[in-house]
Amino acid sequence: MTKTFFLARFWRGHRALTVFGIALLCLAIPSLAASLVDHRQLAGVSVWIKPIKFMLSTGLFLLTLAYFAADLPAGRRGWQLEALAWTAIITSLFEVGYITWQGAHGLESHFNGTSQTTANLYRAMGVAALLLTATSFWLGCLIARRSDRLKGPYRRAIVLGLIITGIAGIGSGAAIAANLGHWVGDPGSDIVGIPLLGWSRVVGDLRPGHFLAIHAMQILPVFGAAVELAGAQSFWARRMVDVFALALVAGIIGLIVLGYKGLPLFPY
User: Fold this and answer.
1) Cα–Cα dist 97/182, whole Å
2) pLDDT digits over 155-189, tens only?
3) For the purposes of burial, counting CB atoms within 10 Å of the CB of 75, is it exposed (0-12), middle (13-18) or buried (19 or more)?
């Protein structure tokens, strides 16, 4: 019963977000299979690694939006939820589609200025990423203003998590763009990074901070739910969520600063 209710929340939140979120997660399976038989590499790792990472990340992003959208009362959704949902879907499909297309052809998708076409597509992908991340902030504001169904620390954690992802996700992405890449230093390739994530272990890397920012929308609500289940008093429970949110923001900033100083998060 609980499992059925959990799965039904996604569908009730937004059907299209749920369908496309699951589709992106499922696309990672054939991409993983391709990586086992296709031995071409980019930056020292399989050409399929980046598409797989973005399929998983954006699929989870869409499903998280759908899950929390279920807490908006049916009579208070309106055009804004539809607009943010389809903005998230279209931009995520464009971003993942372009990254996968480039990867399948053995080409870089990010910071690729080898031709005017690839430079323009990279800029378009940057705009798509900005709009996609902003939908988290948008949903957080909608829940803060319109939902009276969630009370206490869990509701506060949902709102703060979505807003932090929207702001810090864009900010950390801008830091990578301003640096013209995620490395601070020259590691030579991602082969020296930790498995799958690829974060460098020899030079600074801005990706850990961006990762924490993008996944604040999942991390903070989990903490809020744990606080609420522990039965903490309402006032102090909310303050615990606030402190954890501040620590999360401090962690994001700290990881970006660490990267800019050229220091790896997990050195050898």
Assistant:
1) 21
2) 999 999 999 999 999 999 999 999 988 989 887 67
3) exposed
